[in-house]
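seq:
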Amino acid sequence: MIAGEESGDLHGGALVRHLRCLNPQIEIAGLGGQRMVDAGMEQIHDLPRDLAVMGFIPVLTRLPRIGWILDRLYDELERRPPDLLILIDFPGFNLHVARFARNHGIPVLYYIVPQLWAWGHWRLPRVRRLIDRMLVIFPFEESFYRDRGIDARFVGHPLFDHLDSIARTPQESTPTIRTVGLLPGSRSQEIRSLLPTMLKTARILRQEIPELTFDLPVARPRHLPLVESILRTHAYDLDVRIALEGAHQVMKNSSLCLVASGTATLETAFFGTPLITLYRVGFLARQVARFLLRTSHFGIVNILAGREIVPEILLVREDPERVAQAALPLLVDSSRREQMLSDLRAVRDSVYLPQASHRAASQALSFLDELTSR
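struct:
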C-alpha cells in the first residue's frame, strides 16, 4: 500500500484496519504514515512525512529525494512482489509506481483515485493501461471511469464515517450564531497565502456585526508560530481564538466558515455549516487552470451539486472586500442562509454511503480472490 499525504495515511489506516479485521492472516507492507503503522502495516518508508510539500517549486527541490524513494521501493517490489498493490490518491507519485507494477506483472488497485474528471483528462489512457481496478469515493465517478473503459466501483467516502460520529456528538454548549471559522489550510504555503486575506475580511465583517468572534484551528503545532506571527500583523484588534487540532469542532459549531479550497470544504459542508471557498493563485497559474479545468467549478461541493451553491472566490491578489461581500448575506439574510443549508443537506444525502472503509476492504479482498482464481 502506498499513501503519500496525511489524508491518505488517515484513509489508508482505516483500510488496513478493516483488511486485517476481515482477514487476520493478511500481510500488509508499504509506504505510509503512523496511522497505517498503528493499524498493522509494516512501514517501508514514511512517505507522508517525507513529501509533505505543495506547489511546483517545492516539489522540484525534492526530486532527488523522490528518485531515491522510488528506487528503494522498486527494489522492494522486485525482492518480494505483492499479490496486490493498493495505491491511495497521490497520483504524481503513484502513477509512476503503477507503471513499474504493470511492467512486473503486479496487479494494481487504486483507492481514492485522481480527479481526472476535473482536470488531467490526458492521463485517462495511461490510467486505463496501468490500473486494474478503481475504488472511487463519489457516485458519479463510477460511471465516469466505466464509460472510459476503466473498471471502477463506488465504495463511498471514508471521511464521512468519521465526520458522522463527530456530527452526532452532543455539543458541550449552545454555539453562538455569531462565530465565523477561519480555515486557511493545513500547509504553511496555504496559511501564508490565505490567512491575511481571511483576517482582513474578518475586520470588515466585524465592522458590520460588532459581536462577531472568530475561531482559527491550527492543524499542526509546528504551524503555530507562523499563525501567531500573522495574527500579530493582521489581527491585533480582533477576537480570534486559536484551536489546536480542532478543525472539525470549528466547522461544526460555526455559523459560517471561510475555507481554503480542498477537502476541508467537503468536511464543512458535511456538518451543514454555510461556507465560502477560497483559492489563491498567481496570474499565470490562473490562466493555466482555465485552460486545463474541465468543470464549471473548482470547489468539490459545487461539483457534487452540479451548480454553484457555495460562493467560490479565486484570489489573484488580496481582495477581502469581495470575500466579505459574499459572507455578509450568509450571516444576516435568513433566506440566503436557509437556502444554503438546504442545498448542503442535499449534497450530503447524495454522497454519504456509510461504512466506506469496510466496503473498500471487502472489495480489495474480493479482487484478490478473483486474481488467485484466474
